[in-house]
């Protein structure tokens, strides 16, 4: 016994704060005053002997210890909710939360989510995130399963490859390059490209590949997210490099760029998450919904906590 006594009320308050990372909004969600919430978190930090969050510029961020506490607190709250429901005879039907971005939802997860919601309304709750937000949501227990194309795999989560697609050049069907069945980076020389903002992984990797291939190009426009990229491509603003799962809009076509690496999508979850048959069933359903031609070869790597 450590002798430390932690309030369940304080843990729940910290879970809500971790979801918002904003004292005002979290206090509103809890229907308490901001000073009261601040006091609960300060008391919890003091009892645990560690800071739980810190300010970085204008934003609040959880410390590594805070992330672990949020993870524990969420698990604790989920177990308590399930126990109370079982105690009072209410089915344990909490929705599973998925965390993913535009591409995964539009082209990988959509059919599975649609079918599962038709079978059991409310059984899935999608959470739209970027890569960093997805990992944080899974790490803290806010989401049970994340799906994203990752360039660096987390060491504290399980990452299983579920789909692999060639990178494709998206362009008008009457573009000169559309006459080709396949392309190489050098064929893009002089092109106006629709790219993500600086510091986005896809932008960094594409720029590096073009530089290494000594291919000159210009920025047509910087687009935030796949839908905006597709809209600009449909308007004829420029060409775009997208994953092979993307379905071109009418008037557009895609061609594989053979010297770009394939895009690998991973399913991300916490160690032990598949012990929950609902999570295991969701992952199986997602994998079964991937076209056979896009499934990674047997023996694909799975990264676990080290």
Give an account of the 3D structure.
With 306 residues, the protein is an alpha/beta fold. It folds into three domains: 80 residues, Orthogonal Bundle (Arc Repressor Mutant, subunit A); 100 residues, D-Maltodextrin-Binding Protein, domain 2 (3-Layer(aba) Sandwich); 95 residues, 3-Layer(aba) Sandwich (D-Maltodextrin-Binding Protein, domain 2). Helix content is 39%, strand content 21%. It contains nine helices and twelve strands. The strands form three sheets. It has a five-stranded mixed β-sheet, with helices on both faces. Strand 1 and strand 2 form a beta hairpin. Helix 1 packs across helix 2, helix 1 crosses helix 4 and helix 2 crosses helix 3. The longest helix is centred in the first third of the chain and has 24 residues. It starts with 7 loop residues before the first helix and ends in an 18-residue tail after the last helix. The relative contact order is 0.13. The C terminus is likely disordered.
How far is the N terminus from the C terminus?
28 Å
By CATH reckoning, the class of the largest domain would read Alpha Beta
Q: The CATH topology of the largest domain is what?
A: D-Maltodextrin-Binding Protein, domain 2
Beta-sheet strand percentage? Answer: 15-25%
Q: Give the domain tally.
A: 3
- SS-derived structural category: alpha/beta
Radius of gyration using CA atoms only: 23 Å
Instruction: Note the total helix count.
Output: 9
Strand order of the largest sheet: 4-3-5-12-6
Main beta-sheet strand count, sense and barrel state:
5 strands, mixed
**Helix/strand order, N-terminal first:** HHHEEHEHEHEEEEHEHEEEH
The share of residues in helices is: 25-40%
Q: What is the CATH architecture term of the largest domain?
A: 3-Layer(aba) Sandwich
pLDDT < 50 runs, ≥5 residues: 300-306
């Amino acid at each position: 016994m450590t002798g430390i006594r932690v309030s369940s009320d304080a843990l729940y308050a910290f879970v809500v704060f971790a979801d918002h990372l904003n004292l005002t909004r979290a206090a509103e969600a809890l229907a308490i005053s901001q000073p009261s919430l601040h006091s609960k978190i300060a008391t919890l930090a003091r009892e645990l002997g560690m800071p739980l969050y810190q300010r970085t510029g204008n934003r609040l961020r959880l410390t590594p210890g805070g992330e672990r506490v949020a993870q524990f607190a969420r698990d604790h709250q989920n177990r308590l909710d399930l126990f109370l429901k079982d105690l009072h005879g209410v089915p344990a039907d909490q929705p599973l939360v998925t965390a993913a971005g535009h591409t995964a939802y539009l082209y990988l997860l959509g059919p599975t989510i649609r079918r599962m919601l038709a079978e059991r309304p409310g059984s899935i709750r999608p959470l739209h995130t970027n890569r960093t937000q997805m990992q944080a949501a899974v790490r803290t227990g806010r989401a049970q399963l994340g799906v994203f194309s990752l360039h660096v795999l987390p060491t504290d989560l399980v990452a299983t490859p579920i789909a692999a697609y060639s990178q494709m050049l998206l362009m008008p069907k009457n573009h000169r390059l559309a006459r080709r069945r396949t392309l190489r980076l050098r064929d893009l020389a002089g092109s106006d490209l629709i790219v993500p903002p600086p510091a986005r992984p896809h932008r960094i990797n594409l720029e590096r590949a073009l530089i290494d291939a000594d291919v000159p190009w210009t920025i047509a426009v910087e687009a935030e997210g796949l839908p905006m990229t597709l809209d600009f491509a449909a308007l004829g603003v420029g060409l775009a490099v997208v994953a092979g799962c993307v379905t071109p809009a009418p008037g557009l076509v895609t061609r594989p760029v053979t010297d770009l690496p394939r895009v690998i999508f991973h399913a991300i979850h916490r160690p032990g998450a598949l012990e929950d048959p609902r999570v295991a069933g969701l992952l199986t359903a997602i994998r079964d919904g991937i076209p056979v031609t896009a499934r990674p070869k047997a023996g694909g790597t799975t990264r676990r906590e080290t």
